[in-house]
């Protein structure tokens, strides 16, 4: 059973895996190119919010957990590559430079025959096409053990899911596969072998693109309901009640580091086939924040006549509110801000998880939660953080009241809002 593990790339995927392995008793060496990340982790603090991670680092850094720019030479039994694979903002093509560099780093610092695990999300065929040649060039074709084992956790529950979710493992050959199954068997309750590196790569993309797709259908219903003055939640609840087929998803924003990126990696994997669904689902989900921003501007124009100079309080700047996160990747506010700016609207911001500095970076002026309802012409709720779910409308309203509350997740008391003389709207629900 391997005991010393190397993790290359200490972003969300590598960070949580490092913590989970250390919690299981492994010695873990984490490597990252960012001095800020290394300095923060070396102090037992986490640069990313994820429940339980900082406690594990605080308890084990310097003993079971070690961080440095590179892996220690000829030390680890397993080297896990968990670097980012970003998608170009213009071409939407995946950039695999980080992956190739990580593979070269592993080849240079680890012994031939070290088990190498690709954990990054990649186009189908990448582990064989990009990682394998780097290892073979350094170690020789017969000395490579390589597996692909995708990360599939949800933010806010990663440490639990790393143990409870089945770990899918595909190997270069039988020896690689057996080594990979043995390694992940020391972490997870269940391991599930697949026939190849490529099958494991497509498994990850299939999970995330399916999630993007089912959420997009809820958004499609909302946009159609809006055209008819219907309540999309009423329609979705009626469609789901005691119906034996899969439930329809509520409408909502779809962001984050994976769902905003992985559909493009799936498209890149399609070869000569042009997918019908994946790209359209992503386009719809990316359209939703723009549609909401335009709708807010339109409603304010109807209510106030002129939008220039109005103040809009935006609650929830992280891409989601539950489980709570400070992750801004794929946040709706990024695509909303240009629309609000063009309308001359001043945007203020509040988020229990996001710092005032980050809100300013995205163009907002930080505001307290109470002032959001007493010092604004409108309030836009973007995520469903528990603090927002717990709000009592009667308690937060003062004499000066907003003209509009756009409640994206429908978590506020709509009747109380309307009773206060405020226009209430939500995704797909804009009728007066």
TrEMBL record:
Similarity remark: Belongs to the UDP-glucose/GDP-mannose dehydrogenase family.
Stretches assigned to the UDP-glucose/GDP-mannose dehydrogenase C-terminal domain: 313-414
Keywords: NAD, Oxidoreductase
Residue ranges of the TM segments: none
SMART domains associated with the record: UDPG_MGDP_dh_C (SM00984)
NAD listed as a keyword: yes
InterPro entries in the record: 6-PGluconate_DH-like_C_sf (IPR008927), NAD(P)-bd_dom_sf (IPR036291), UDP-Glc/GDP-Man (IPR017476), UDP-Glc/GDP-Man_DH_C (IPR014027), UDP-Glc/GDP-Man_DH_C_sf (IPR036220), UDP-Glc/GDP-Man_DH_dimer (IPR014026), UDP-Glc/GDP-Man_DH_N (IPR001732), UDP_ManNAc/GlcNAc_DH (IPR028359)
Name the UniProt record assigns to this protein: Nucleotide sugar dehydrogenase
Species annotation: Paractinoplanes bogorensis
């Amino acid at each position: 059973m391997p005991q010393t593990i190397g993790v290359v790339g200490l972003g969300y995927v590598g960070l949580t895996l490092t913590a989970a392995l250390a919690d299981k008793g492994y010695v873990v060496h984490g490597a990252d190119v960012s001095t800020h990340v290394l300095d923060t982790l070396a102090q037992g603090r986490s640069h990313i919010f994820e429940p339980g991670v900082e406690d594990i680092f605080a308890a084990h850094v310097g003993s079971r957990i070690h961080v440095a720019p590179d892996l220690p030479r000829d030390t680890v039994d397993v080297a896990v590559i968990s670097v980012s694979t970003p998608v170009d903002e213009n071409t939407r093509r995946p950039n695999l430079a980080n992956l190739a560099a990580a593979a070269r780093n592993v080849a240079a610092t680890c012994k031939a025959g070290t088990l190498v695990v690709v954990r990054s999300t990649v186009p189908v065929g990448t582990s064989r096409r990009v990682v394998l040649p780097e290892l073979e060039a350094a170690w020789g074709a017969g000395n490579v053990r390589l597996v692909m084992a995708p990360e599939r956790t949800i933010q806010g529950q990663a440490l639990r899911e790393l143990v409870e979710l089945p770990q899918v493992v595909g190997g270069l050959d039988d020896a690689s596969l057996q080594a990979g199954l043995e390694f992940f068997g020391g972490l997870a309750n269940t391991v599930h072998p697949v026939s190849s590196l490529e099958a494991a790569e497509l498994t990850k993309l299939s999970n995330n693109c399916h999630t993007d797709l089912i959420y997009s259908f809820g958004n499609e219903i909302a946009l159609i309901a809006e055209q008819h003055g219907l309540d999309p939640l009423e329609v979705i609840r009626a469609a789901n009640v005691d119906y034996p087929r899969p439930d329809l998803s509520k409408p909502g924003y779809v962001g984050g580091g994976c769902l905003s990126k992985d559909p493009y990696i799936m498209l890149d994997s399609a070869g000569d086939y042009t997918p019908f669904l994946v790209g359209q689902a992503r386009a719809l989900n990316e359209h939703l924040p723009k549609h909401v921003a335009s709708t807010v501007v339109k409603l304010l124009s109807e209510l106030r006549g002129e939008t220039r100079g109005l103040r809009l309080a935006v609650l929830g700047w992280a891409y989601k509110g539950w489980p709570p996160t400070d992750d801004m990747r794929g946040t709706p506010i990024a695509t909303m801000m240009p629309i609000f700016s063009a309308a001359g609207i001043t945007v203020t911001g509040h988020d229990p998880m996001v710092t005032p500095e980050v809100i300013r970076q995205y163009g907002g002026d930080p505001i307290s939660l109470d002032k959001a309802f007493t010092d604004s012409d409108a309030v836009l709720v973007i995520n469903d953080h528990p603090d927002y779910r717990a709000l009592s409308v009667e308690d937060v309203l003062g004499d000066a009241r907003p003209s509009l509350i756009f409640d994206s997740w429908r978590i506020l008391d709509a009747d109380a809002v309307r009773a206060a003389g405020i226009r209430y709207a939500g995704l797909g629900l804009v009728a007066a």
